[in-house]
Amino acid sequence: MAFCGCFSVEFGSKNKLQTFTAIGIIEQREPYQVELDGGFQPYRRDVCWFPAEEAPIRPILGGLEFSAGKPNWGYQFRFEVFVISDHDMNVIAAAMGVDFAR
Hints:
By secondary structure, the chain is mainly β.
């Protein structure tokens, strides 16, 4: 399982970064719960991160299958995690300067 991150500039902000900022492989371990300040207890998964450069999404949108023909392509990111094809993962990895042959 692989992971790419694309986030807003600041949590909860409408100021969108629309840039892939991280890429890695999700470890084959079960999710685990952590406790943060204020009683918030999110689940986490371990990720093996690759060194990578940030890559704006707009220049590669036309080459991504998950955005093809979808004017509201960014809506999928609201759910935090969604599956993308090997093709898309490789396009994103190449844009980030990562040799990530899946």
